[in-house]
Write the structure tokens for this entry.
Amino acid sequence: MQIFSTFSPNFNKKKRPFSKIKHIIIHYTGMHSERESLKRLTSFKSKVSSHYFICRKGKIHNLVDETKVAWHAGKSSWGNYKNLNNSSIGIELVNKGHDWGYQNFTKKQKLSLIKLCKKIIIKYRIKKNDIVGHSDIAPDRKKDPGEKFPWSQLAKNNIGIWHSLKERELKRFRRKKIKFKKDKIKFIKDLKKIGYNINLNSTNSHFKLVLKAFQRHYRNELINDTLDQECLIISENLRKMLKTA
């Protein structure tokens, strides 16, 4: 795997120890072009960066040294961690995103990402559940990497988690309303166990944003803000997987 060095000045100067690196956060660039995206991530004026940048043809750029804190996550939360810039490696994949014509990720991008993630996972002993998208850690602000991102393919390569349910059987429960208030409570508890920043006192508007982030990641064929039986079954399956991990 060849990685090209392309310097970004946007990082904290102080080194962090290896033991502080706990997460991989995946983003899309969300801009018109590859060139424009790379220019922004390497411009001092932008105040944003990532550790890695993967082009449409699979070329990998290293923008910030892994021992430095890059500026990619912003205000964020996952599990017991806040402000995930401090504890993560950020990876940007070139994609126009939802605002400019959301694209499928290319085969070469996916192959490069899998190789890169495997390297990072081994180096820092990253747990599967701590490999997430920007929308997972900041559901009130972000949609990336979005519903076209191949989470299930990554999970088959031991990168991140995915449910163990059969898709065909799951679809029978799609759009079927939950019957009891206790089901929503159970779902919220499951999401919190998975890592999402939510609790029983969260507002309904926040609940809907977190629900959509969950759907983008684990039920990407239908993204709405409605809790149905399919979502409930998936969250329960994921929670049980984490319990036995």
